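User: Can you recover a sequence for this backbone? Please restate the input before giving your answer.

Assistant: Of course. Working from this structure:
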């Protein structure tokens, strides 16, 4: 059955009629060109095109969205489709040891909507201190006081008890935030287990983050609500806005004398096009594609660009400072009742499919079996006002809930046969720990000067021992929760199948879990930092606090790559906020220029 679902997704071609069409007659020149229709790019293009006299072109390398991508439960399967860039990290001797060729998967959205079209729809903002820290690093205007209004501007909160908190929530914005229509009893047990060990049930997007909660999700009426649906579908008839799909921007055109960005070059159907920008170019390709494009255009580390044969236009530390929230996937707990989620059962039960397609409710409305979340401050156990450094992401199943999920993680067949085949049809739950304040840093580099060669991703997860030890704390926290009355009601039992490669350690010992973490960790796909925002005095900075690329006129970067430190959040909504703030700064500057001329 699972293989049939994958085929169904790959062959699904019915696109949303409300998505802006692929513009066939693009103009030779626009006021603004935005590269990348992801979470940030969609929000940015929406706001810039509100100025009716400005002509805005949004260029996306990927495909249109289709209706199959709307079904929350199939999110994992989307990674087998052409909507995924299908990146892999470079082989490591330290982490991803159970993956094929010791490479972790790095799914990235290659579609209108970007990664918001294939992600798990988890709606988190991050803490106040995350953004205040950005400002402390020398980025005025990026503190929480400045950022909160943008969260409120776009939000349409449909969870009644949360919507009443008008200081932290709002209604009427483009991005619907809702509670998933279906929750397993295990998800409810997870929240109850948190209360048993002394934590409260919280609104983690409100005043306090520390505590447990059922998931807040970017879904509407049980369907995915991507950045494209939120920001592009409503503007499909704007005459000053054009969207170009399946078009890969290969180079930013820069006047070498004035060092001014003046246009872009892109390829569609093997044909090369050039289009000019009279005001600005804004790169919103994400933490892999944005640094790749800058380096292909001659903006990057001088030594590296010279090594691959690219003339240097501006020497900047592009591609450095790569961050993510690592997580380990193999901490699964078996239960003695049919209270979890197993994909084949859902597809074969005769009621879940019609329930979803008729009412958008039921088990298929759960985002890839992800149902709940918890945040901890491991240094300040008793304070709700503290800053989370650890997250547990709750899934109402394990990797064995379907026969293809492990392939999405690039897990070796041999490891899957040993670890998950024996429990493939068992009801279970999994808590994935996330290190929220990683100290390790990776790097994106070019494989060559060919824009069609995927860049090389050196993630360097756990290069700093702190990050691994935080994962160990997360594993222990999950085990502690499993022993609560809430979970023992289902005879919750830790799966004791030894992870291949870790047989030499005593099961359950700290060294065993450290070995498991190195073998079974995955990147959680919150890539940030590779075009770092910072003051001119910061040698690692690529853009300033107004997101302008140092040394190049009329060029900005606006996406997760500018984040100087990854927030303690899933990065979809924070990336939208970057796009909104960028638009405000651009509008402010160009309207001021006009008024002063």
């Amino acid at each position: 059955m699972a293989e049939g679902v994958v085929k169904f997704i790959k062959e699904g071609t019915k696109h949303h009629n409300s998505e802006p069409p692929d513009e066939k007659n693009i103009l030779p020149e626009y006021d603004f060109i935005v590269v990348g229709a992801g979470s940030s790019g969609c929000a940015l293009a929406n706001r810039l095109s509100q100025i009716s006299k400005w002509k805005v072109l949004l260029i996306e390398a990927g495909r249109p969205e289709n209706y199959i991508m709307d079904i929350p439960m199939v999110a994992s399967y989307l990674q087998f489709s052409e909507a995924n860039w299908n990146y892999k990290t470079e082989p490591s001797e330290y982490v991803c040891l159970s993956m094929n060729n010791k490479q972790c998967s790095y799914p990235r959205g290659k579609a209108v909507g970007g990664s918001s079209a294939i992600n798990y729809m988890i709606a988190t903002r991050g803490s106040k201190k995350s953004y205040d820290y950005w400002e402390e690093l020398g980025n005025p205007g990026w503190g929480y006081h400045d950022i909160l209004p943008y969260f409120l501007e776009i939000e349409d909160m449909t969870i009644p008890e949360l919507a009443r908190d008008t200081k932290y929530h709002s209604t009427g914005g483009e991005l619907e935030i809702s509670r998933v229509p279906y929750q397993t009893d295990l998800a409810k047990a997870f929240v109850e287990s948190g209360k048993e060990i002394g934590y409260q049930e919280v609104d983690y997007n409100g005043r306090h983050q520390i505590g447990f909660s059922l998931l807040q999700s970017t879904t509407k009426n049980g369907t995915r609500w991507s950045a494209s649906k939120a920001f592009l579908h409503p503007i499909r008839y704007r005459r000053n806005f054009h969207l170009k799909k399946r078009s890969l921007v290969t180079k930013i055109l820069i006047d070498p004398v004035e060092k001014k960005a003046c246009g872009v070059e892109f390829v569609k159907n093997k044909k090369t096009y050039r289009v000019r920008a009279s005001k600005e170019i804004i790169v919103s390709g994400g933490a892999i594609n944005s640094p790749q494009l800058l380096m292909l255009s001659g903006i990057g580390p001088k030594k590296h660009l010279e090594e691959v044969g690219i003339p240097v236009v501006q020497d900047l530390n592009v591609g450095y400072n790569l961050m993510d929230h690592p997580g380990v996937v193999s901490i699964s707990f078996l239960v003695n009742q049919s209270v979890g989620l197993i994909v084949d059962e859902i597809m074969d039960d005769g009621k879940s499919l019609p329930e979803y397609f008729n009412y958008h409710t039921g088990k298929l409305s759960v985002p890839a079996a992800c149902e709940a979340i918890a945040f901890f401050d491991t240094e300040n156990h008793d304070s709700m006002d503290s800053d989370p450094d650890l997250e547990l992401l709750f899934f109402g199943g394990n990797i064995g809930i379907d026969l293809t999920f492990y392939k999405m993680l690039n897990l070796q067949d041999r490891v899957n046969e040993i670890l998950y085949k024996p429990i493939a049809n068992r009801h279970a739950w999994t808590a994935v720990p996330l290190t929220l304040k990683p100290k390790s840093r990776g790097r994106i580099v070019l494989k060559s000067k060919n824009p069609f060669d995927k860049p090389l991703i050196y993630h360097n997860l756990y290069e700093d021992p702190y990050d691994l030890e935080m994962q160990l704390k997360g594993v222990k926290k999950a085990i502690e929760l499993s022993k609560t009355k809430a979970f023992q009601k289902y005879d919750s039992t830790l799966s004791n199948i030894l992870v291949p490669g870790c047989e030499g350690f005593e099961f359950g010992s700290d060294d065993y879990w450290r070995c498991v973490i190195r073998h079974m960790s995955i990147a959680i796909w919150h890539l940030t930092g590779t075009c770092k925002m910072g003051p001119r005095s910061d040698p690692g900075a690529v853009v300033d606090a107004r997101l302008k690329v140092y040394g190049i006129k009329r060029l900005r970067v606006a996406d997760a790559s500018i984040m100087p430190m990854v927030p303690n959040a899933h990065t979809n909504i924070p990336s939208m906020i970057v796009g909104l703030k960028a638009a405000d700064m651009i509008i402010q500057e160009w309207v001021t220029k006009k008024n002063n001329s």
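That completes the design. DSSP finds 17 helices and 26 strands in the chain.
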